[in-house]
Design brief:
This protein is an alpha/beta fold. It contains eight helices and seven strands, in the order αβαβαβαβαβαβααβ.
């Protein structure tokens, strides 16, 4: 497959934000509604979830919201043009908690490299999870990469929960958050 042409996906060229594993699309549809000056792509492997994002976007008349049904890593590495995104959101990725399954986790050293190649200079990646072990792994990988600096997420972003987050909060489960900004070190591209 060829890299996507963002000019064919969106009516206006605007800064791009991506949510990997967009769930039912609640967060992304609301964030896109609040920010018509940006374009958004929700990436989701499950058709039912992506259909919910599509319905929410259509009901709200959002021309700045699109969805892609594909594996997140593949989308970043092979379909998105280099240095195309201002922001990547990764909220509550599957933690694969069993030790023997952890190799299936989305966040790896290779994922950090793919994100660095995807982000424009100074771009952001935001994480949320309920799994302390996975949170530790995410921080260790991004802290060690040298391509990112840990930063405080914008307040507006912190105040907008995802569907999973609302469910976990109702059960008293804490949300762990960390954000990084591209340091400009590493990949050329774009």
């Amino acid at each position: 497959m060829e890299r996507i042409d963002l000019a064919e996906w969106f009516p206006k060229p605007q800064p791009l934000e991506i949510e990997l594993g967009c769930g039912d699309g609640s967060f992304l549809a609301e964030y896109a509604r609040r920010h018509p000056e940006r374009n958004f792509i929700g990436v989701e492997r499950l058709l039912g979830r992506l259909s919910k994002l599509d319905r929410k976007g259509r009901r709200a008349g959002l021309t700045n919201l699109r969805g892609a049904r594909i594996e997140s890593s593949y989308f970043l590495k092979f379909l998105l043009p280099p240095r195309a995104a201002e922001t990547v959101h990764v909220y509550f990725p599957d933690p694969w908690p069993k030790k023997r399954h952890q190799r299936h986790r989305l966040v790896t050293e290779q994922f950090a490299d793919a994100v660095a190649a995807t982000l424009r200079p100074g771009g952001w990646i935001h994480f949320r999870t309920d799994d302390p072990n996975y949170f530790g792994q995410i921080r260790a990988i991004f802290d060690a990469s040298g391509k990112f600096r840990k930063r405080e997420a914008p307040r507006e972003l912190l105040e907008l929960p995802t569907d999973f987050e609302l469910d976990f909060l109702s059960k008293g489960i804490q949300t762990l958050r960390v954000s990084y900004q591209d340091s400009g070190i590493g990949f050329g591209g774009g």
